[in-house]
Amino acid sequence: MDCYTANWNPLGDSAFYRKYELYSMDWDLKEELRDCLVAAAPYGGPIALLRNPWRKEKPASARPVLEIYSASGVPLASLLWKSGPVVSLGWSAEEELLCVQEDGVVLVYGLHGDFRRHFSMGNEVLQNRVLDARIFHTEFGSGVAILTGAHRFTLSANVGDLKLRRMPEVPGLQSAPSCWTTVCQDRVAHILLAVGPDLYLLDHAACSAVTPPGLAPGVSSFLQMAVSFTYRHLALFTDTGYIWMGTASLKEKLCEFNCNIRAPPKQMVWCSRPRSKERAVVVAWERRLMVVGDAPESIQFVLDEDSYLVPELDGVRVFSRSTHEFLHEVPVASEEIFKIASMAPGALLLEAQKEYEKESQKADEYLREIQELGQLPQAVQQCIEAAGHEHWPDMQKSLLRAASFGKCFLDRFPPDSFVRMCQDLRVLNAIRDYHIGIPLTYSQYKQLTIQVLLDRLVLRRLYPLAIQICEYLRLPEVQGVSRILAHWACYKVQQKDVSDEDVARAINQKLGDTPGVSYSDIAARAYGCGRTELAIKLLEYEPRSGEQVPLLLKMKRSKLALSKAIESGDTDLVFTVLLHLKNELNRGDFFMTLRNQPMALSLYRQFCKHQELETLKDLYNQDDNHQELGSFHIRASYAAEERIEGRVAALQTAADAFYKAKNEFAAKATEDQMRLLRLQRRLEDELGGQFLDLSLHDTVTTLILSGQNKRAEQLARDFRIPDKRLWWLKLTALADLEDWEELEKFSKSKKSPIGYLPFVEICMKQHNKYEAKKYASRVGPEQKVKALLLVGDVAQAADVAIEHRNEAEMSLVLSHCTGSTDGATADKIQRARAQAQKK
């Protein structure tokens, strides 16, 4: 343990800081770091370098090269810079490289040097040029702040949703501020700048002068300022060599340190750990690194070569040409276990486990001491927690073995924390590998979340490792393996040196029917890369037609889209394609396409019936479908025409179409309708009233009701209405008029072709029994009983039924007999039935 703490450096009495090597950098840098623009992403992110010839007195003739490396120095991308002078580099939260040019244009590149997009910071920035720029991170995303040649600030808090804010002018500012930074307060980004001994805070509305509380006297200039990773604290380096530390709101002072160095530092960043009460700032000069805090002493390191500081959530990364190190405050659990002469329960448990491996009885003594104090659960938890904060696998294993050893003597210690820590450390050790180069700490990993880590592995195209992690952690397929395979497929379609057939086959073999994977999304990516045929092949594997069709339409493969829509059986989808085709093709080609697809043609006809009648007529004409064309003209005669002449003309066109279709019946019926319309118009002119659009029967009935019996009979003869139907019409009409005298005359005019039972029924329907009895006597023998029953003459109906000796008629009469009034009649029928049975 004594050797283990050799690199621990105390800062005051309550905190230790240690610096250990993450990687030995093997990158082949062509330039010194001091001659480059450098940007390193937080959370173990990549490093970007761009040689900066624009800062030299004589620009170099060769174009600079933009190089991107992993945190371990493994090259990820290299591209020749062909654009304008760059003022600043920075990484977004999505690990996109933002390159701020002198003209205010920001170029965005991917991790592998692929150009993504660009945007401008506005005309004012273009006119006045960029003096300096900062890329910062907020809860809304990544932002860019610009200082122009006019000494004005322009800011956008989120480059994903670009909204430029021109900050207020600083009064009396004639030259660039000595230092400035972005500060986020109350979810709003501000600019803090120093002009001589004065500090100004710029928000969207005003410029306010601010004064740090408790600042040492004699300050004539601020040389450097730094905001903590969480934007809660601020550090100011003055020309007197003092470093003031306080809250970012400048309302509270935490401490002040005199470093006795007045030269401006190259960099100054915060080094603090989440939930720690200690606050420290790391200051770097050419060959010196100093850690200062609320203590009279500082920690100093000698820098052998140019170095660059990267602030992190729980420490500071320091990299140079040869090494990449991590400087941080020693966590409480590690400090309690490893500090010299520690009697913490975790320290005793670690010693007990080591003695146990030596088969020494001291193991029992240590263990008893912990148990007597009742601190064994605390000891196990300390070892688990300390293991998470250790970088070297050997020390992690030692601490976890101690925790496992202690768990054996506890009855109800929940294993979740131990198992989870083992899983997390295995993941962390895998991504810390030199070839992966993501040196996340346990605290950073928990803050970043496993989903974001998987996204970053996918960005680096480390698909096998990402899938192994998903399977090891047993993540749901949709969130894990499926999502990663979809990203892999989208990358695969960009490999233009492989044939479309081979790419499509490889993707299908790998993905199969994996849930959560959309072949249409992959096909869309292929189409975006200019590989239309590959996109079509991939869509063959897409089971959802609703996803296939829109992309096929976008690719201008409308006929194939129509086939797919018809195969799906989704009429809405077919209509969508049809409307697209209608707008895309000329009328003739569109109709020819429909002729080859009967289902689509049928659906389009249905659509036209409700929306485009003229188009429907054109379809029938093109197909020589005279039957449907005739029906169309008949509907049109009623729907579109109001004048009788127009309707007759439309009906004549319909009749001609029916003759062409060899439908004689329809043609004759249409001609009859034309005659009826003309006759109805004449009747209206001569008699008045409403005759148009009545049916033939209704027209006859209306004439009878109007007293025009001769006209009705003439109409019946003209249209060959059968006698039976005419008698029914006249009978009904006269009964409705209650013209009983005319009805009686009509019944005697000649022998009724419908018999006289209908007369009885109609009269009873009009509740006129007197008239009904007149006709009951004239009813034929086969219907006599029924007529008598209708008029209520049960006794006579019984006599007729007995006379006819008809069993059915006698049963019918019996069903109409009531016990109180027709008892004698019922007995009479029963006797007649009994007598008939004897015979």
From TrEMBL:
UniProt keyword Lipid metabolism present: no
Membrane topology: Peripheral membrane protein
Keyword annotations of the record: Coiled coil, Endosome, Lysosome, Membrane, Protein transport, Transport
Domain Vps16 C-terminal: from-to ranges: 517-835
One GO cellular component, as annotated: HOPS complex
Places the protein is found: Late endosome membrane; Lysosome membrane
InterPro entries linked to this entry: VPS16 (IPR016534), Vps16_C (IPR006925), Vps16_C_sf (IPR038132), Vps16_N (IPR006926)
Family: Belongs to the VPS16 family.
Function: Plays a role in vesicle-mediated protein trafficking to lysosomal compartments including the endocytic membrane transport and autophagic pathways. Believed to act as a core component of the putative HOPS and CORVET endosomal tethering complexes.
SUBUNIT field: Core component of at least two putative endosomal tethering complexes, the homotypic fusion and vacuole protein sorting (HOPS) complex and the class C core vacuole/endosome tethering (CORVET) complex. Their common core is composed of the class C Vps proteins VPS11, VPS16, VPS18 and VPS33A, which in HOPS further associates with VPS39 and VPS41 and in CORVET with VPS8 and TGFBRAP1. Interacts with RAB5C. Interacts with STX17, MON1B. Associates with adapter protein complex 3 (AP-3) and clathrin:AP-3 complexes.
Protein name stated in the entry: Vacuolar protein sorting-associated protein 16 homolog
Species whose genome carries this gene: Bos indicus x Bos taurus
